[in-house]
Amino acid sequence: MSTSRRAFVKSAGLLSAGAFLAPSLVAAAASAPKSYIGLQLYTVRDAMQKDPAGTLAQVAQLGYTSVEGATYTGSQNFYGMTPAAFAKQLKQAGLIMPSSHYRLGEEQYQNQPVQGTMLYGWDKAVDDAAQAGVKYMVCAYLSEAERGNLDHYKLLADRLNKAGERCKKAGLQMCYHNHDFEFMPLEGQVPYDVLLRATDKDLVKMELDLYWATKAGKDPVALFQQHPGRFPLWHVKDMDKTPKRDFTEVGSGVIDFKRIFAQAGKSGMKYFFVEQDQTPGSPSTASRKASPTSSTPWYKAGAACWFIPPENQQLTSRTYPPETTLP
Prior knowledge:
Elements: H1 3-12, H2 23-29, E1 37-40, H3 45-50, H4 52-61, E2 66-69, H5 83-93, E3 96-102, H6 122-132, E4 136-139, H7 150-169, E5 173-177, H8 191-198, E6 204-209, H9 210-215, H10 220-226, E7 233-236, E8 238-239, E9 247-248, H11 257-261, H12 264-267, E10 271-274, H13 283-290, H14 298-301
Parallel strand pairs: 1-2, 1-10, 2-3, 3-4, 4-5, 5-6, 6-7, 7-10
Antiparallel strand pairs: 8-9
């Protein structure tokens, strides 16, 4: 590990058990229609908060070509920077940010509306996204208070359509990112199905989170076949082999990425983003497992983490945030 990369890992406090790329995932990703290998920046959120420019540079050095943002809501900035300033940092790192996450905005903070959401400050959010080079604006998550009954999901669909109309005027695309709760039956129907039916298929696309869909018992490939072209964005996350079916490093779990990536064209996928919301284990254990001289081979240690373009398959270092719960 180089001095600069070691400093990056140490300063971020984010060393994982992963060090290598699973060859099977390289082959799977090769079937994707685009060559952009993406990272959801939530994965390195602490490092981005401390040193966004340095973190972006390290992300690029590790082989990524694109990133997905996650901090605009509430701040109306991208990692503390104006859209123009952040776009400049991305360019300097050799990265693009085709997608960024936003919140709905029903949930207030200290009894005040939160700006930079679908319901408050959306016009500015769209303009800022366009200036930063974002193509897809994604409703990232619904708090429990924002879910409600089936009628509330129908209201959400209307709001997504309206937000999508504003995006379209700016040449952008509205999307919705799932967790598992959208697939849980409610009043005899599945909320995710309601969203797919009630939103305009051109105004609102989907960012399919492969982990959450799989955990909910849904087959991503079946969704692609039922709604071809509706899923231009994916979150590539893996599920461990324990009864809890927790997050694990991409490539070391049970999700069949080869099968899913084979349907990238059917889904309409344009970009995918590797993400791990949480990671167990200690940095010392992770460092030992990541060592190329480890007595436990990486493919047995569950260490396949970074997606790297096939022409740049090399030993790398995977970083993750401290264990925390993503809403």
